[in-house]
UniProtKB/TrEMBL annotation:
Organism: Duganella aceris
A Pfam family recorded for this sequence: TetR_C_3
Residue ranges flagged as DNA-binding region: 45-64
Record-linked PANTHER family: HTH-TYPE TRANSCRIPTIONAL REGULATOR RUTR (PTHR30055:SF196)
Full protein name: TetR family transcriptional regulator
SUPFAM superfamilies, sorted: Homeodomain-like (SSF46689), Tetracyclin repressor-like, C-terminal domain (SSF48498)
Domain of life from the UniProt record: Bacteria
Length: 226
């Protein structure tokens, strides 16, 4: 019917508007993450983010009415990507050594490719997670508990050595995220302007070797056959 046709025509335009809004919001968040990482939450202004994004302050506030809303979006994006990497550990049917190797590789890749995102998250946690603690509690903790169950199953099956899985994860986070959060210090020690891909490759080998050594099942000592 003609009426139905007329009602259906605006749909593609509405879809394009939604896509354009999503794209612009993502671009604003990409600019904001660097400003938050450099200036902290208190030191960041909507005006600075808007200027960096090539928008007026009023235009930016149409998409993010408050600084806290923009900060929330930035941390949501960071956590989404970080949790995507953590979910690999939940695949308990795979070889533990390969799961952990892949996990370390993914965390280091995140530190290399998204250093600003890692720093924003670290700054929020260091400050006591006053603005984002509830999201961390609701999203990170359940996934960590699932991962710990995987470790416990590996241990009970004799696939890895008995180990405190929670603190092993803490250690992996600390080792991998430091290559984003403290990269400036590392570069100074290495006498260069910034870390190179080789630095990350070298770090991966050291961290993976340490993690795999921690979970290795001790080989039985053969008795004297004489």
């Amino acid at each position: 019917m003609p009426t139905a046709k007329l009602n259906a025509e605006p749909a593609p335009k509405i879809k394009r508007r939604v896509l354009n809004r999503d794209k612009l919001e993502a671009e604003i968040a990409a600019e904001a993450v660097r400003v938050f990482a450099e200036c902290g939450y208190e030191g960041t202004s909507i005006a600075t983010v808007a200027e960096n994004a090539g928008l007026s302050k009023q235009n930016l506030m149409y998409y993010f009415p408050t600084k806290q809303a923009l900060y929330q979006r930035v941390l949501d994006d960071v956590l989404d990507e970080w949790l995507d990497r953590m979910e690999n550990l939940a695949a308990g049917d795979q070889e533990p050594r390969e799961v952990l190797r892949t996990y370390v590789q993914a965390k280091l890749k995140f530190s290399r490719e998204q250093p600003w995102a890692s720093r924003v998250y670290a700054m929020e946690v260091i400050s006591g997670a006053q603005l984002y603690g509830a999201q961390i509690q609701n999203r990170v903790v359940p996934l960590v508990r699932k991962d710990i169950e995987v470790f416990e199953k590996w241990i009970s099956d004799g696939r890895i050595a008995p180990i405190n899985a929670t603190h092993l994860l803490f250690a992996i986070w600390a080792m991998t995220q430091s290559y984003a959060d403290f990269s400036a210090q590392m570069a100074l020690v290495l006498n260069r302007k910034q870390l190179t891909k080789k630095d990350f490759d070298d770090a991966e080998k050291v961290i993976v070797d340490m993690v795999l050594a921690a979970i290795s099942v001790p080989q039985p000592v053969c008795g004297d056959a004489r």
